[in-house]
Design goal:
Number of strands: 9
Oligomer: single chain
Helix content: 25-40%
Mean pLDDT: 91
Low-confidence stretches: 2-22
Number of helices: 7
Shape: elongated
Length: 239
Amino acid sequence: MKRLVVLVLLFLLGSIQCQALAETPKEILFASEEWTDATNKDGTGLYWDIFRAVYEPAGVKVNFIIRSYEGSINLVTTNKADAVVGSYENEIKGMIYSKDAFDADSIVALFKKGTVSNWQGKESLKGKAVAYVKGYSIAKYLGVPVEQKEFDTRENILQVLDKGRVDFYLENEDDLDEALELNIVDRNNFQKEPVMELGLYLAFPDNDKGKALKAIFDEAYPKLVDSGEIQKLLTKWNW
């Protein structure tokens, strides 16, 4: 009788394990904006390396599609992709987020020289017209009331800032510097100041596949940090 009970238990355990294996997604499709040396279009970059290190050992093939940030959100919320890359914590309503941030944005404010006599961080933005790229909910994390202005491109924001139609442009510092290098405006006319740091997370749809993919990341990523593998990738990309 005891032997029969043990055999039944082993059978049930095996069935559960097989079911779990069967439910592991075979691939993940990331939707991301292109960021130099992070999410390059050719598949190279720090973030792609991190995600491959997380998912490929679990048998999940890593694929990606390059879109604007807003376009990436639309793909995932309509179940045409599996994860938004580089979302701020709880930024997108109805999505579930990785437990850990895999990087962080240094958010800075760009404004015309002479328009702010004494920079006081977030307080200097209070009640002002603040512009940022459509899709990024940067104002949500400021903690001070501002007049929010969203634009489709960074080039448009620089132009309206130069014309005085907005007071500040909020952006990740690396993306802002790349936009200024396009020489759309004379960067010598502007001042840049730090505002805050925001962690970058993966945002998944709140469904079975999204939960499974989140669980893989939440388990694997801390182990890669502890093992030093993430640091190796950071060093590789001079991050």
